[in-house]
Amino acid sequence: MKIGVLAKQVGITVETIRYYESEGLLHPALRDPANNYRRYDHSHLERLIFIRRCRTLAMTHNEIKILLQARVEPDASCETINELIDEHIHHVQARMAELQILETQLIELRSQCRAAHTTRDCGILRELDHPIEESSEAQPEHSHVPGSQCRIERH
Amino acid sequence: MKIGVLAKQVGITVETIRYYESEGLLHPALRDPANNYRRYDHSHLERLIFIRRCRTLAMTHNEIKILLQARVEPDASCETINELIDEHIHHVQARMAELQILETQLIELRSQCRAAHTTRDCGILRELDHPIEESSEAQPEHSHVPGSQCRIERH
DNA sequence: TCTTGACCCTAAAGCAGCTTCAGGGTGTTT
DNA sequence: AAACACCCTGAAGCTGCTTTAGGGTCAAGA
Ligand SMILES: [Zn+2]
Ligand SMILES: [Zn+2]
Ligand SMILES: [Zn+2]
Ligand SMILES: [Zn+2]
């Protein structure tokens, strides 16, 4: 099948497929000698579905590569996989904890202004003007396995 | 004061300060005619503290710019500010909800493999091979105020 | 005085995971 | 033959910085 058909089957764009190929997630497709178009078969479809499933679970390309590697080594132990998923669950939980703290702080901030008035007297602006109070809790310096790092976005 | 002193006062790097200037968050500093070094005063310090406070609350540059604008218009209504904070709280809550769903799915996935065995028989890989089940809930197509968009990272 | 080290400057690239754009072929239909 | 859908590559854009490269400035010590 051509790239457009594959894209529709998986529910992604052709650009994303080409990007995955350039990233080494998807094996380069065979090319039609006549026009240089990429040709895909069922194994590509399956691999792409796997990749997308991992992406909707917010795994990074690095994490996915490790799983893909395990997938083609049927005789290896799946320890690695279990550990990777466990670690990734931690990534998600850690990010949620951060966001919960954020939410609390934001709601407190919001409570500083209940009636609408001029910005001169706005409690929100006033609170934002103060420096950040250190929570005095040292950052745990999370030790990631180098090569499968994931951060669940901390913009 | 010079940029290095300012950076230490605020607790960020000089590169970040220069970046904020290039982004239009911080007004360009006066330059020492002798050596072209940036010179800052107290108002820069206050503005930077404000910016950092907003950043630790995960606001985007766009959101911060709106607040900064309100800050220099003391006679305007603070309606805008309240709405922006409310919206931003929604950003955080929406992202948390996404992560909670993720966590549930990941824990379910993890439960597919309790004993270590070969990847051939790994329930995790098996489940990842299946296509994504649509939760059939149409995405709410959140209507953002154009110009203050924020996404709390959805990598 | 010369040199070392701390500090300052700019411009550009890198990170993650794509999306979008520019510029140009291919292939089928009307 | 023109229109339109589809394919190709390479590069830039997005976000919020960090890092690197390459090069001035300035104080103090040898
Ligand atoms: Zn992860
Ligand atoms: Zn207010
Ligand atoms: Zn927001
Ligand atoms: Zn297993």
From TrEMBL, chains A, B:
<dbReference type="GO" id="GO:0046872">
    <property type="term" value="F:metal ion binding"/>
</dbReference>
<dbReference type="InterPro" id="IPR000551">
    <property type="entry name" value="MerR-type_HTH_dom"/>
</dbReference>
<feature type="region of interest" description="Disordered">
    <location>
        <begin position="133"/>
        <end position="155"/>
    </location>
</feature>
<dbReference type="GO" id="GO:0003700">
    <property type="term" value="F:DNA-binding transcription factor activity"/>
</dbReference>
<dbReference type="InterPro" id="IPR047057">
    <property type="entry name" value="MerR_fam"/>
</dbReference>
<feature type="domain" description="HTH merR-type">
    <location>
        <begin position="1"/>
        <end position="70"/>
    </location>
</feature>
<dbReference type="GO" id="GO:0003677">
    <property type="term" value="F:DNA binding"/>
</dbReference>
<feature type="compositionally biased region" description="Basic and acidic residues">
    <location>
        <begin position="133"/>
        <end position="144"/>
    </location>
</feature>
<dbReference type="InterPro" id="IPR011791">
    <property type="entry name" value="CadR-PbrR"/>
</dbReference>
<dbReference type="InterPro" id="IPR009061">
    <property type="entry name" value="DNA-bd_dom_put_sf"/>
</dbReference>
<dbReference type="GO" id="GO:0045893">
    <property type="term" value="P:positive regulation of DNA-templated transcription"/>
</dbReference>
<keyword id="KW-0238">DNA-binding</keyword>
<protein>
    <submittedName>
        <fullName>Cd(II)/Pb(II)-responsive transcriptional regulator</fullName>
    </submittedName>
</protein>
<dbReference type="Pfam" id="PF13411">
    <property type="entry name" value="MerR_1"/>
</dbReference>
